[in-house]
C-alpha cells in the first residue's frame, strides 16, 4: 500500500492547505506555483507507478481523489476571490463532485473503476492552463475556462461509457 507514488499522492493532499494559506494571504501567483508543484507530483506519481510496476488499488483510488480535492480547493479560492464566476465554479464543482461520488459508490459496490485516460489527463492539463490564464489575467481567460469546462464534461461522458463497458464485460465473463 505505501510506496513512493502513494506518498507523492499524500503530499498532494498536504499541498491543499498550503495552497489555500498562500492564496488567502494574497499571494495568488505564489499559490499558483503551489498548484503547479501539486501537478508535478501528480505526473511523477503516475510515471513512477507505471514504469516501476507500483500501481496499487489504493493509489488508483487516492490519486484522482487528490486531484479532485485540489481542484475543488482551487475552484473555491477563485470564486470567493471573484476571479471566476459562480456559474463556472458550480459547473466545475458539479463535474468533480460527481466524479468523486460516482467513483466511490462504484468502488464500494465492488465494481471496477476506469483508470485515468488520455482525455482525463488532458482535461487536467487544460484546467491548469485556464487557471494560469485567469491568475495572470490574460485576455479571453474566462472563455478558455468555459471551453475546458465543456471538454471536462465530454471527458466525463467518455469515462461513463468506458465504465459501463468494463463492468458489462466483467458481468458477461462472470456468467460464463
From TrEMBL:
Transmembrane segments: 69-94, 114-134, 140-161
Keyword Transferase in record: yes
Record has Phosphoprotein as a keyword: no
GO molecular function, one term: CDP-diacylglycerol-glycerol-3-phosphate 3-phosphatidyltransferase activity
Protein topology in the membrane: Multi-pass membrane protein
Pathway noted in the entry: Lipid metabolism
Alphabetized Pfam families for the sequence: CDP-OH_P_transf
Record localization: Membrane
Highest taxon above the source species: Bacteria
UniProt-listed GO biological process terms: phosphatidylglycerol biosynthetic process
Main location: membrane
Keywords, in A-Z order: Lipid biosynthesis, Lipid metabolism, Membrane, Phospholipid biosynthesis, Phospholipid metabolism, Transferase, Transmembrane, Transmembrane helix
Family to which the UniProt record says this protein belongs: Belongs to the CDP-alcohol phosphatidyltransferase class-I family.
Protein name: Phosphatidylglycerophosphate synthase
Organism (species): Paenibacillus xerothermodurans
Higher taxonomy: Bacteria, Bacillati, Bacillota, Bacilli, Bacillales
Amino acid at each position: 500500500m505505501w510506496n513512493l507514488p502513494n506518498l507523492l499522492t499524500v503530499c498532494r493532499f498536504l499541498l491543499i492547505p498550503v495552497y489555500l494559506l498562500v492564496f488567502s494571504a494574497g499571494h495568488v501567483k505564489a499559490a499558483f506555483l503551489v498548484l503547479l508543484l501539486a501537478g508535478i507530483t501528480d505526473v511523477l506519481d503516475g510515471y513512477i507507478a507505471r514504469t516501476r510496476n507500483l500501481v496499487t488499488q489504493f493509489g488508483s483510488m487516492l490519486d484522482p481523489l487528490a486531484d479532485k480535492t485540489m481542484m475543488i480547493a482551487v475552484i473555491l479560492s477563485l470564486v470567493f476571490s471573484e476571479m471566476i464566476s459562480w456559474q463556472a465554479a458550480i459547473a466545475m464543482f458539479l463535474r468533480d463532485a460527481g466524479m468523486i461520488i460516482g467513483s466511490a459508490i462504484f468502488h464500494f459496490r465492488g465494481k471496477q473503476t476506469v483508470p485515468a485516460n488520455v482525455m482525463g489527463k488532458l482535461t487536467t492539463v487544460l484546467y491548469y492552463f485556464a487557471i494560469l490564464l485567469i491568475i495572470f489575467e490574460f485576455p479571453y481567460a474566462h472563455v478558455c475556462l468555459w471551453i475546458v469546462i465543456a471538454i471536462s464534461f465530454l471527458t466525463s461522458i467518455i469515462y461513463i461509457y468506458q465504465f459501463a463497458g468494463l463492468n458489462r464485460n466483467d458481468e458477461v465473463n462472470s456468467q460464463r
